[in-house]
Every structure is written in C-alpha cells, then in structure tokens.
Amino acid sequence: MGFTFGRNAARCDVVFTYDPLRRLSNTHFSIYVNEFGVVMLADRSTNGTIVDTDLLVAKNGADRARRVRASGSRVTVLLSVREEELAFVVRIPQRVGEYAWAYIQNVK
Questions:
Q1: I need a surface site. Which of 6, 29, 39, 97 has the fewest CB within 10 A?
Q2: pLDDT digits over 16-32, tens only?
C-alpha cells in the first residue's frame, strides 16, 4: 500500500491540514513500491497532482494517473494560489551492496 497523502486523518498516513479552498482530496495521492520494486506515485484525487511537469488526474484513467518516481522528483499540489502550493521532493536511498539486499527483502 505504501503511504497515502490527503486531508482525511482516518484514511491517510500523511495528513495536510491547511487547505482553505478544499483542493485536497480525502485521499489525494499515494506513493508505493510496485511488485517490481519500482517507486510509484498514483493520483487518487479530483483536482490532480503535479509530478515534475506532468499533471496526473485519477478521473482521466488509471494509466494517466500513475508515474514511476525517481529520486529528485518534485510532487506539487496547488492549494489556492501559486505562493501557497504544497510541494516536496522525493528522495530514494541508494540500493547498492547490503542496502540492495535489504531493499529486496523489504519489497518481498
């Protein structure tokens, strides 16, 4: 399942409380590792999530609402005005040596 992000504390692992125009969905997006060990972001919202320069919107279909994430990807949710956007950068630890083994074990 990974981690879910949104405004509903009962449904999300990470809860955003400041949302004056209610642009955040109850469950806005999730970040998870798929069966191949790849970090993914899936939009689950009505208004969409911007990943780097791509707007992902769940209502447009599942294929358009998911993206592979790489370290350094920027995830943005527009709250009301550009100055109040919610943004963060995805950081994925390196998977080499003993860390690669531990990562594969965690995925399994």
A1: 97
A2: 887 777 888 999 999 88
